[in-house]
Design goal:
Aspartate Aminotransferase, domain 2
Length: 427
């Protein structure tokens, strides 16, 4: 038996033994392709389509405005409590609302207002750019005295915990980091860094966008202060689906968010002319919730809760290990390098492969010649091919086929037929 046949046989056997295999059938299939971009946009659950028909036809179509009294007003909190079960938060600590960047703005401004006399924000150069832009905008808005310091990475993959310790001081108001890094998939030590921040009296805010639904998180056990995240990657909430925010329960009455919208007030339907914030996490709401897009999140949340984050993580680690075995055998000899940590505990559910011709290779994967498998990965400048493993629907055979196709493209230099720059996929 050839080495390729042996790997294929291994993939097929692992799929037969997979306790989560049945979940693959609960997602719609697009045109024939191997989809390895669930870290940017998750597949559509079949139940989401049916559920939206229910929301549109019965709730909106028949109930009309009475839908607000039949569950719509509670949707932000109900979905938040489901996400809380995936990230170790308590009921009443997470809301689904607004966009990730808007939630970041609200929580950072609230933290800085609370941290009287402290004006330093610490983040790092590997953080998601939108997060950094929001932080820069806040510094510009607040003016003189406030400062954003970015920790440098030594290898472009991870941030050294010692660098965090060296950066923090008594002037630090807030640390804000990505938990799983968008390019390299490096996973920060949430518990250790949170504890360090608290030693200095600083608050900490975590971006969970590349963790939620794929990497176990325990916000309560870590005593994290604040967090944000999106729902359209591993949570399969749909393109641009509504984001979420987390505020630890003891902080909710202490923090004043900057956007005083009517749904964040103590009694929204009194329609008073003077704003009085709600006494719980609902003070972080702003305006009328987008019911249709929020409703699309729920079926996939239920699938993840049913499968269990522990089982999803275990499968992700096994699949990542299989991918790395193929990388070592097939791709490392062809000039690829690993852009993610090798140790599973320090890595999320996507793996970055680096190659000088990554752009052309990605283009060739997406636009194959007739008779070749179409594989959809993700590209990040300048040289990262990100392979997102969504254990709720990706198979081991998906990984085998995707890696085999990359090897074919590199060996044949097919990427030379696909010159130029390929657009990054949306985050």
């Amino acid at each position: 038996m050839s080495a390729d046949s042996q790997y294929l046989s291994t993939a097929e056997e692992l799929d037969r033994q997979d306790p989560l295999a049945s979940y693959r059938d609960q997602f719609t299939k697009s045109d024939p392709c191997i989809y390895l971009d669930g870290n940017s946009l998750g597949r559509l659950p079949i139940q989401t389509r049916d559920w939206l028909d229910e929301v549109i036809d019965r709730q909106w179509g028949k109930s009309l405005i009475h839908g607000w009294n039949e569950g719509w007003m509670e949707l932000s909190a109900r979905l938040g409590d489901k996400i809380a079960r995936l990230v170790g938060a308590r009921p009443g600590e997470i809301l689904v609302c607004d966009a990730t960047s808007v939630n970041l703005y609200k929580l950072v401004m609230a933290a800085l207002s609370y941290q009287t006399g402290r004006q330093r924000i610490i983040s790092d150069e590997l953080n998601f750019p939108s997060d950094l832009y929001v932080l820069q905008g806040i510094i510009d808005q607040l003016g003189s005295g406030y400062k954003l310091d970015l920790i440098k990475s030594r290898d472009g993959i991870r941030i050294d915990p010692d660098s965090v310790k060296s950066a923090i001081d008594e002037e630090t108001a807030l640390l804000t980091f990505t938990h799983t890094y968008f390019k390299s998939s490096y996973v920060q030590d949430m518990a250790g860094i949170t504890s360090l921040a608290h030693e200095y009296g600083a608050m900490i805010l975590w971006d969970l966008s590349h963790s939620v639904g794929s990497v176990p998180v325990d916000l309560h056990a870590c005593n994290a202060d604040l967090a944000i995240g999106c729902t359209y990657k591993y949570l399969n909430g749909g393109p641009g689906s509504t984001a979420f925010l987390y505020v630890r329960k003891d902080l909710q009455e202490k923090l004043q968010q900057p956007i005083w919208g009517w749904l964040g007030s103590k009694d929204p339907f009194q329609f008073g002319t003077a704003y009085e914030p709600a006494g719980d996490i609902s003070r972080f709401l702003v305006g009328t919730p987008p019911v249709l897009s929020m409703s699309a999140i729920e079926p996939a949340l239920d699938l993840h809760l049913e499968a269990g984050i522990t089982a999803l993580r275990e499968k992700s680690i096994r699949q990542s290990g299989f991918l790395l075995e193929l990388y070592d055998d097939w791709l490392a000899p062809l000039g690829f390098t690993l852009g993610s940590p090798r140790e599973p505990a320090s890595r999320g559910s996507h793996i970055a492969l680096r190659h000088p011709e990554a752009s052309g290779i990605t283009r060739a994967m997406i636009n194959p010649p007739e008779g070749k498998d179409r594989v959809i990965p993700d590209f990040r400048t300048p040289d990262n091919i990100r392979l997102g493993i969504a254990p709720v629907y990706n198979s081991y055979r998906d990984i085998f086929t995707g890696m085999k196709r990359i090897r074919e493209i590199a060996e044949s230099e097919e990427y030379l037929k696909n010159p130029g720059f390929i657009m990054n996929s949306r985050e």
